[in-house]
């Protein structure tokens, strides 16, 4: 490959023979594997995380915020369902932005998504540690051991092979949904909505008799709750990262992502209504809980079954943890293969053909961030503060990734109108515009929350360091990966 100069001051360098052979994948995933990958990545958000929004918006604020975020995700996933089969590369968000906005746009979008996929499993494993601590009665200081143990187990499962990874994903996703369904059926005879779901006063205190306002913190509470409502859907957009492992991405990718978002909308509606309404639980307590689904099970079945129920609830968290480790590996791999990140990160395992270096590196980075947050805030802080800080850091990266993907969709519609599009978004450009607007509003209210602002600013600093790395080094040593070749070819045609 001859050296080439690209747009934005990018230079493409020669690579040794066999470069891409060392970075190959196997095709395995069908439509139901993709559905499981998308739903499994999100489903832990229906177990823990979303509930923290009850303390900022009350039940009505949480429901309204979930509705606004649902609109944002519909605009996003329909846009992605159009772009993914048209650009069926592992790069996903980076690939879309690279074709629409050039190498700088591709890198910045990929960097934002990288923050999301490094930190999201960190949030999930934090909540897994909370559940396991309740099961085995371990002290708070033992939490980092649970995090390291979970990473070790599920990194191994993801490295051993794509076939095993997708089988595990399907099994744990179905199990996680089954547990939620059991909870819904169990909860319905044990709810008192007015008494328990509406038990937050306008001053934030608990109302002993319930029957409080739907929106105890007014319209501001709705917008302040948006980052937590994101947790009900965050990571469904990871599906295109499996494009080069999908048997037929042009047919199956749109089907998988649309089936996934429909499943999640149904599940999110049920959990937001039922969990706070269970007698003995309530919105006030759930707003500060690290294990809300377990709280609901305890109230229904009693403390005697708590440990068994906690173990059952961990399955939902494991489903997302396992699938987002998969996504993180592919996301880092794609940016590394093209030279945006150090190329050593894209080497795949010689026997299993999985991006083991990328997955291990991402896990080590996530653990480092978790330990920094853990020790800087102090382990005596409640799970609502530590988990909420990590959650807001992940959401901040995700929002910018969504905004840039929506912009990419609009630009691809305008600049490359004639590329093959096996699926076209029924929401079109208006859906993408809604995604941008809601994403910007969510970021604004993240920055307005002093509790989590420091973590969000830390992510912004990470963006600055990444951009400096690209500007000073990586852009001079790029490689013509499939994403880069596609973009340059169609740029010439345009």
Automatic annotation (TrEMBL):
Pfam families per the UniProt record, alphabetical: AA_permease_2 (PF13520)
Entry keyword Cytoplasm: no
Membrane-crossing segments per the record: 28-47, 59-81, 117-136, 142-161, 168-188, 217-236, 257-285, 305-327, 357-377, 383-404, 425-445, 451-472
Membrane topology: Multi-pass membrane protein
Organism: Methyloceanibacter superfactus
Predominant localisation class: membrane
UniProt protein name: Amino acid ABC transporter permease
InterPro entries hit by this protein: AA/rel_permease1, APC_superfamily
Keyword list, A-Z: Cell membrane, Membrane, Transmembrane, Transmembrane helix
Keyword Kinase: no
A GO term from the CC aspect: plasma membrane
Subcellular location: Cell membrane
Domain of life: Bacteria
Gene3D superfamilies the record matches: Amino acid/polyamine transporter I
Molecular-function GO terms, alphabetical: transmembrane transporter activity
């Amino acid at each position: 490959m001859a050296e080439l100069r690209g747009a934005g001051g990018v230079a493409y360098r020669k690579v040794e023979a066999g470069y891409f052979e060392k970075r190959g994948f196997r095709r395995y995933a069908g439509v139901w594997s993709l559905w499981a990958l998308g739903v499994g990545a999100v489903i832990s958000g229906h177990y823990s995380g979303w509930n923290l929004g009850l303390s900022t918006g009350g039940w009505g604020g949480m429901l309204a915020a979930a509705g606004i975020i649902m609109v944002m995700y519909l605009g996003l996933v329909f846009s992605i369902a159009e772009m993914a089969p048209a650009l069926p590369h592992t790069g996903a968000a980076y690939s879309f932005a690279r074709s629409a906005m050039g190498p700088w746009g591709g890198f910045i979008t990929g960097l934002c998504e990288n923050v999301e996929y490094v930190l999201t499993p960190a949030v999930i494993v934090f909540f897994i540690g909370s559940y396991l601590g309740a099961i085995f009665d371990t002290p708070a200081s033992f939490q980092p051991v649970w995090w390291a143990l979970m990473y070790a187990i599920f990194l191994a499962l993801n490295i051993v092979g794509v076939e095993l990874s997708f089988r595990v994903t399907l099994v744990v996703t179905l199990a996680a949904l089954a547990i939620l369904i059991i909870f819904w059926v169990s909860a319905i005879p044990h709810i008192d909505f007015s008494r328990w779901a509406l038990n937050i006063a306008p001053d934030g205190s608990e109302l002993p008799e319930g029957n409080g306002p739907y929106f105890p913190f007014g319209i501001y509470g709705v917008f302040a709750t948006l980052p937590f409502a994101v947790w009900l859907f965050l990571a469904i957009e990871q599906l295109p990262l499996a494009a080069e492992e999908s048997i037929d991405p042009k047919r199956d990718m749109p089907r998988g992502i649309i089936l996934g978002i429909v499943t999640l909308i149904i599940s999110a509606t049920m959990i937001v209504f039922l969990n706070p309404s269970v007698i003995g639980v309530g919105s006030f307590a759930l707003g500060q809980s690290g294990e809300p689904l377990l709280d609901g099970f305890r109230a229904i079945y009693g403390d005697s079954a708590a440990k068994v129920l906690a173990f059952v609830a961990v399955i939902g968290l494991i489903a997302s943890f396992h699938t987002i480790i998969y996504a993180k590996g592919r996301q880092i791999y794609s940016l590394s293969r093209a030279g945006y990140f150090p190329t050593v990160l894209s080497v795949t395992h010689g026997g299993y053909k999985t991006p083991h270096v990328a997955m291990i590196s991402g896990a080590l980075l996530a653990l480092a961030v978790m330990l920094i947050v853990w020790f800087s805030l102090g382990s005596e802080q409640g799970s609502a503060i530590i988990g909420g800080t990590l959650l807001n850091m992940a959401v901040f990266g995700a929002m910018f990734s969504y905004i840039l993907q929506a912009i990419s969709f609009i630009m691809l519609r305008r600049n490359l109108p004639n590329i093959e599009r096996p699926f076209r978004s029924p929401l079109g450009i208006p859906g993408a515009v809604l995604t941008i607007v809601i994403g910007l509003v969510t970021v604004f209210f993240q920055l307005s929350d002093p509790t989590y602002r420091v973590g969000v600013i830390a992510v912004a600093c990470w963006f600055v360091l990444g951009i400096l790395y690209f500007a000073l080094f990586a852009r001079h040593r790029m490689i013509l990966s499939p994403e880069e070749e596609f973009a340059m070819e169609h740029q010439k045609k345009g």
